[in-house]
Amino acid sequence: MTDPMQKKPFSLRLAFAQVFLVSLSLMLFEINLIRLFSVVMFYHLAFFVLAIALFGIGLGGLYAHMRRPGEEDALPRLTPYLPLFLGIGVIGVLFLLVHLPLQSSLNMYPFQIRWIFLVFLGTMLPFFFGGVFLSRVFAARPQFAGALYFGDLLGAGMGCFLAIPALEWLGGTYTPFLVGMLAAASSFLAPGSVRLSRLASLGVLAGIAILGLASYRWNLAPAPIPDPDHQVEFSKWNFFSNIVIQPYPEWKGWRLSANYDGPIPPHLRLTQDGRAPAFLERFDGDFGPLAYLRYDITSLPFRVVQPRKVLIIGAGGGRDILTAKLYGVSEIQGVELNPITAAAMRGPFREYTGNIYGLDGVNVAVENGRTFARRDKDTYDLVFLSLADTQAASAQGAYVLSENHLYTVEAFEAYWDRLDADGVCCVVSSTGWSDFLLRMATSAAVALERKGISDPANHIIVMMTPDYPYIGKGMCIAVSKKAIDPALIGRARQSCEELGFSVVWPAQDTPHEWTDRVRGLLQDSMRRETLKSAYEDLSPLWDDRPYLFYALKPAAFVKLLFNPSGGPAEMRWHVRSFQLLVDFFLVAFVCVFALMLAPLIGFRRSEIAAGRRAHQGFFLGIFFLLGISFMLIEVSLLQSIFLMMGNPTLTFAVTLGVMLVFTGIGSMLSGRVGTGSLRPFLMRAAIAAAGLQMAAACALPVLAPALQGASLPVKFGFVLALMALLATPMGMLFPSALRLAAASGFDMTCWVWGMNGVGSVLGSVCATIIAMNLGIRAVFLVGIAGYALIALLTFGLRRYQTAVD
Asked: Rounded to two decimals, what is the model's pTM?
């Protein structure tokens, strides 16, 4: 049967443009989905989105080849409409997520697992349609596969860069309408497109545009807000957050002393993705109504240190700046990661807050705290980090990227360098009902040892509040540049006595219940045994494994993997987030095996020739390893480069965008290799990829911290050079292996797509598991091992290839 679409001559330019637009739409939707998941689900687990996208695209490719057209050069009749289905599916996913949010209570477990399956399969559909479309285009025009594959990766790379302005201007609930319109518009570029296809494209395009305008007018797809009972006074999206500001009169301070019985002035609550609250105090220049700030736990650093010059990392709503001013601090340098927060403080809420960011002696930089500490050359009496949002963040299981590197050993070393001779670094946090955040004290102690301090216990003060209903204890850790003197510890004791708090360390005449645990963590001679005896992971945080809110030891992870509700009582703190994590893994594995591997085994066993199964097994192993290894390297690079870039926006867009572009270049270059040279070329490319990756694994831990203080052009240049070296040989492997399999006489396209898709999905999941339990470097090394195995398998093809030749 001849497809009427083929009546008009094929245009490579139009096909290239259509593939470019479809890939751009898919990548833009994937990034937007990460933002929607973070807000709607209250979990920042990007790997789940990666798994969904890879599963959908892989499944689409698999089913496209399982239903191949009878004529090799004829596109199926349905192909021109697939981008339309993609666009419609994107809008459907948006309404699914905003109108059916996750209820994460453990009591809702049966509903929760069904919800995850529904969301996994529902959000997969746009990627499925995109995967079917791209696969059929490539299959119909194999002679142009190199150029079309380059257009595919170039479009995905451009989608990364477009995501920044799209989310900045449209937000997470309106960007899907742009994605749908781009996907629908790509149908106009279908080579040989017939009238019916163009009319359908026009209808879908107009329908999405009208629905988008209606949604803007009547708020048909509202973003969830933390507290629907209170009016939203401000809401804005950007690439990595959704900031909402609304009244919250119920709040009475982080850990307000019971000795205070005065009034609390009006304030607003600022949340990022529905969690991590900060508060904006109403301030008119009169500090009288703010007297209650002297009784909150966040006043301890100013009471104890009595600084004149302060660095505040996490300026937020300016509450800590007001506390500093209340104690007479003359020079205040604030650092705020989120540009929306800074813009709100300097714009619409400038009058409400009394222009806190613009007070005399106050300067606020919009930057990552680690990056600023590395770049700054000034020194301070006090470096202050207020982790008062720990309670809310960890209760939501939020392993937030922007928080990960602020509390590591290397971070404390950077803060140490910003202290003057008598300076003190203070971290205020919530402990909830567990002591796992004492690992910050462990990190500080190890940092001091690396700075040449023989006895860190003589440089650290730990202060604790009593238990508060629903929120537990609060903690303040003070790390002094010089050994603790009588004046410093005297002010700490006096302050705690006035507020009804306790000094946990140094030990008092009547030791606190946590004194022995703190002693064991601070003193090197006792640390190993203390860490071993603790059920939770109290080990120091490193840049390689910076997950502050993940306190499971690897052994405990394995136990709870099979029994999420088990474990001792102290692990209840982690059960909710851990159970959701396990459910994500379960759903991904079930869908992969049920929808990808089972159909292959059931319907495509004939592609595995009885007499050549060993030969084909090598190819299946290669394609599986290509999928899993690429994802492991990609995820580890994103984590490693984030520390250098200091901004999740730039990290994701620049790294992934540039990586995809150079992968496409590698794919295009591989097309120049003759068929007879494919096997040795594939082996050399795999060896080159593994070798360059190993060099990067050795160099990045040194170069990334060294470049933290460099200018953005220098950082961009470094990422560009790094991706050119790493991604170009990686891009050569898949098309070369595909051509080599075809040259060997194998018709196993379905298995190729299936095994590569399975590897990609499992790679995204395994990258998260390995990083959280063993570290980012371990992810990198496992990925390198995968590429080394590809080289070995390619070498093993030699005896089979000789027979074929």
From this structure: 0.89
